[in-house]
Write a structure and sequence with these properties.
The complex is a heterodimer.
Chain A (H helix, E strand, L loop, with lengths): L18 H31 L4 H11 L10 H16 L12 E5 L6 E4 L3 E5 H6 L3 H17 L1 H20 L3 H37 L3 H10 L7 H5 L6 H18 L1
Parallel strand pairs in A: 1-3
Antiparallel strand pairs in A: 2-3
Helix pairs in contact in A: 1-6, 3-5, 5-7, 5-8, 6-7, 7-10
Chain B lengths: L1 H34 L19 E12 L2 H13 L4 H21 L5 E10 L5 E12 L7
Antiparallel strand pairs in B: 1-3, 2-3
Helix pairs in contact in B: 1-2, 1-3
Classes of the chains: A mainly alpha, B alpha+beta.
């Protein structure tokens, strides 16, 4: 018998799926899974955050081994630290949770930033101290950060990042896909973070009013920071903070309400 | 934001480049398979025929084909929901066909290949490694290497 070769015209061992359509369908499915898990987990996180004691917070922060910043040495930084403490002491903290022992930390950093850390710490960078030369504006910054303690935003933020990272690693493994999806789900987190910032702004205004009797500090702060802000809706999507224009609008609304009430 | 834009650009570009490379490889494979179609490549043992065997020895070839970023992304998503790993089916198929052709092209005068084994090694998801080994049979002593 003579050998007759067979030439296959169609490859049956390779799936006939359309790659782009398949990827889009899978991305949609992954988004549904993430959203369905994210909503109940978010509620659970908020519930647990309000039940964590400051002592537990402090313990958690110590075990996370995250540096709260480099404490700078030198006469110019000593002056900054002195000013920071003076402004901080002037703020009446009657309305804030009394369970915390609040403290301010000066961090040698070129990024103009301030943030709240678990356990009652407010970190202000040296760049922020240099930019914000007005004490009223600095009071607004500190008041804003202290407001985060009232809503326990610092804890909720940490827990959300932890849960999202764990969720994406368990679902997609420790590879590039996990990183990509963590970034995408991180956008949900940023949207939540921006909502938190509005309420912290209101706390900043309240503490400003309690300290100086007016809200001028917020105006000075935003005027000082104007050259540093990136505007645009697209930038806002990837930012932890809302656009300054939106923040100012919300704060003006609050001030109007307060004037109306008084 | 920049990272996500870079990722989307990379996914689109790797999809386009990867698809073009795959099409070109499949076209070349088809042509080469057509040229080597009269050399049987069998998994069965050799059966003695009328002509005496002039030479018989072991030959082997291996091929490693890498997947692109798009396929890796697609496979990563498929892992979550299950189903066909379509992202790598094409890779594995091309690697197997390429390995068989490499053996055939090393011995263009051989009568046939018997006792063939094709092994696929999945070292990492993003690539397909195939090792093929077989016994090459020469019937005509003048054709022997």
């Amino acid at each position: 018998m003579k050998y007759k070769p067979t030439v296959f015209r169609h490859e049956v061992n390779v799936g006939q799926q359309r790659p782009l359509r398949s990827v889009l369908r899978l991305c949609g499915g992954a988004a549904c899974v993430v959203v369905l898990l994210y909503i109940p987990l978010g509620m659970l996180i908020e519930w647990t955050a309000h039940h964590v004691t400051p002592a537990q917070e402090k313990w958690l922060w110590q075990h996370m081994q995250v540096s709260a910043g480099v404490t700078p040495a030198g006469p110019e930084y000593r002056k900054m630290r002195k000013r920071l403490r003076r402004v901080f002491r002037a703020i009446p903290k009657d309305n804030l949770p009394s369970r915390y022992i609040y403290r301010v930390i000066l961090d040698k950093n070129e990024r103009t930033n301030a943030f709240a850390i678990p356990g009652g710490g407010v970190v202000v960078t040296t760049a922020m101290m240099s930019h914000v030369s007005d004490d009223r504006a600095l009071t607004f910054v500190l008041g804003h950060e202290l407001g985060h303690f009232h809503s326990r935003d610092h804890l909720i933020g940490l827990e959300r990042i932890f849960v999202l990272t764990m969720m994406s690693t368990l679902l997609f493994g420790i590879d590039g896909i996990s990183g990509v999806l963590a970034k995408i789900t991180g956008l949900f987190n940023l949207a939540y973070s921006r909502r938190q910032e509005f309420s912290a702004d209101i706390w900043g205004l309240r503490l400003l009013k309690a300290t100086y009797g007016d809200y001028r500090g917020a105006k000075i702060f935003f005027r000082t920071m104007r050259p540093l802000y990136q505007s645009g809706r697209l930038n806002e999507l990837f930012s932890t903070h809302p656009r300054p224009a939106q923040r100012i609008y919300k704060m003006n609304q609050y001030i109007k309400e307060q004037r109306h009430l008084s | 934001m920049l990272e996500l834009i870079v990722l989307v650009v990379l996914l689109i570009s790797t999809y386009l480049i990867g698809t073009a490379i795959e099409k070109e490889h499949l076209r070349a494979l088809h042509q080469r398979e057509h040229a080597a179609q009269y050399q049987p490549f069998l998994s069965e043992p050799f059966r003695q025929c009328d002509a005496p065997v002039a030479a018989a020895f072991l030959v082997r070839a291996q091929v490693v084909i890498s997947g692109d970023l798009f396929r890796h992304f697609w496979a990563g998503l498929s892992k979550v929901f299950g189903g066909d790993m379509a992202a790598y089916e094409g890779l594995k198929n091309r690697a197997q066909r390429e390995a068989v052709l490499r053996i055939k092209e090393q011995h263009p005068q051989a009568a046939c290949f018997v006792n063939a084994k094709i092994e696929t090694v999945n070292k990492r998801l993003a690539m397909a490694k195939v090792i093929v080994y077989a016994t090459v049979i020469y019937l005509d002593p003048h054709d022997c290497p």
